[in-house]
């Protein structure tokens, strides 16, 4: 715009006389119309909800991004307060405020440094612009577009951090000759590479290591083996481009040992990150290769060894490279480590064995711009692993900001080379090839006025390039109409932004009143809303027929009769207007995106949408970002109706005609079953419906309720379960056989009963027989066959 104006004023425009003046007038009007149109387009999307408290221009423009101030003289009507000057741009124009008298500041952007992309060895530029100056109006977002182009041959610093616990013995032998291989492998990527070396074991206190004197000297399992004393972290070799030096220093290293499986890897990573001068990090791509075959200790584990001080995130390496205060500070937390790695622009590569891959994969999710690779038991694949991990990391661009002032919000949108647009917390693009450009758009919003100019940075993780932003807020009206002791103000004040700023304690719209004068009854009455109300609502003082409201740091009282304040409004969740609006005379004026009597309702329907994007599944209404479901259906998305009867019996005829072209709806199936969708490729669910068709066949099918009312999808089993016709011969044969079997059974039962009865009687007879006792005696009727006669004469 400045260029356009300069062109208009340039001597090169050689018009003379009235023709020149007419042309200049026309061009200025054209430029002004363009500027006004841009302003309207930028702020028209924001409403203006002014309260009666905005009595100055500054208060007005800070009440919302859609509010503008009219500084036109005598704009306010009789009886109106100066707050009537605060309104939306369109309303002010409709109320006949001249356009040149409207103050409506906009967010402004100017580029300070915008050098082109370049890949010179001494100066690689991958991001443009490099520095901008931004003036934000409170609440008015401003978009900033910048580009990133991945350069070829970007320098690399690689620090190899190795676990030297006893289980890594074979790996150490392999690493001792690794220097040249690493340099050769990465030379194909960049001509400027440096490598360094460090190692770690664990804290030298119980229960992490054996503190026996002999074990502290040689922690190997047997005395015949040679191990170096245990240590937490040791910086061995500063970053260098000499492979022979790397091999020589690593050759001097010996294995060590500890007691528990987890190691002090996070301690070592923290020291490698914060001791930049000792490690020798350059301002280039920084890779930290971490190799281990076991897990890691983290914050809180130090308490096992009576170490209570939290990790301070500072460098504690002594002259020999040892972490000398490891016994004083606990292990760092993962969040602390991730923060320090990001601050120092370090990308970790975790080269670990297969058994602990899951642990480090979860760790990598919590550390941005990190990678995990599977390390063979002897570390033989570490070179290829590092090369692959570097390619993956460098092709993923993640933007991150730091030093963002409080009250400033930033959002990212990425336009990647594959055409994909991504909105997320950090700008992200994947698979960015060398030489490709990607664009990022950040939207910055100041939610409050800043007390000074702040500087913050946006930079891609893993790269040294950055976009520096100088940020200030535009919270003051720069009015150019100030007149001291103006006639308009009865020579008792100056005009600022169209209103009188009174002096000598004068008050009134035109400084017409002197509070020291004796008030008349008429002036006193003017401070009463009605005959039954108190003067100035008992919240102000009456001077010259106008109320001067009391003030308080936490309570703002205003209104013609001091009848309004900014605290007596409805609460939500313990906050005035739910924390999403301002209180205006008992009514909440909600911020953009909220509604309701207490601004408790987000003007959004995201929580009401189901997985298909349908609001409340078509079976309810979205109120306050929550579904109000139809009778029977349950929130959150009105998907299910547990109390509703099964729809299976109701739609069996539709299922019959859709699946088998039969039944009552056979001839008009499509018209009769418009709400039923037949899925011919699906599978029937575990708990299907089972209903009888018009032919008394069982049809098995499942019904899924779709979005909307009485909309279903059915999956029908292809075969019906129809009953077989009766077998007459089998029925007759079965009947006869049944009768015979029953008769035979009755005979057998009768025979069994009689047999049992006879045996019982026989046993009783035998028992009575044995019990009988007979006495000997002669039958008086019995006569023997022999008779003996005795002759007395012979005696």
Automatic annotation (TrEMBL):
Domain annotation Integrin beta subunit VWA: ranges: 56-477
Domain PSI: 47-98
GO terms for cellular component: cell surface; focal adhesion; integrin complex
Highest taxon above the source species: Eukaryota
Keyword set, alphabetical order: Calcium, Cell adhesion, Cell membrane, Disulfide bond, EGF-like domain, Glycoprotein, Integrin, Magnesium, Membrane, Metal-binding, Repeat, Signal, Transmembrane, Transmembrane helix
Signal peptide: 1-41
Location of the protein in the cell: Cell membrane
Domain Integrin beta subunit tail per the UniProt entry, residue ranges: 648-727
Disulfide bonds: 57-67, 60-97, 70-86, 220-227, 275-315, 416-429, 449-689, 475-479, 497-536, 502-511, 513-527, 542-547, 544-577, 549-562, 564-569, 583-588, 585-616, 590-599, 601-608, 622-627, 624-669, 629-638, 641-644, 648-657, 654-722, 673-697
Topology of this chain in the membrane: Single-pass type I membrane protein
Pfam families the UniProt entry points to: EGF_2, EGF_integrin, Integrin_b_cyt, Integrin_B_tail, Integrin_beta
GO biological process: cell adhesion mediated by integrin; cell-matrix adhesion; integrin-mediated signaling pathway; leukocyte cell-cell adhesion; neutrophil chemotaxis
Transmembrane segments: 728-750
Keyword Magnesium: yes
Gene Ontology molecular functions: amyloid-beta binding; integrin binding; metal ion binding; protein kinase binding
Major localization listed first in the record, in broad terms: membrane
Domain Integrin beta subunit cytoplasmic: 751-795
InterPro entries: EGF_extracell, EGF_integrin_2, Integrin_bsu, Integrin_bsu_cyt_dom, Integrin_bsu_tail, Integrin_bsu_tail_dom_sf, Integrin_bsu_VWA, Integrin_dom_sf
Transmembrane keyword on record: yes
UniProt-listed PANTHER family: INTEGRIN BETA SUBUNIT (PTHR10082), INTEGRIN BETA-2 (PTHR10082:SF15)
Record-stated family: Belongs to the integrin beta chain family.
The name this protein goes by in its record: Integrin beta
Origin species: Callorhinchus milii (Ghost shark)
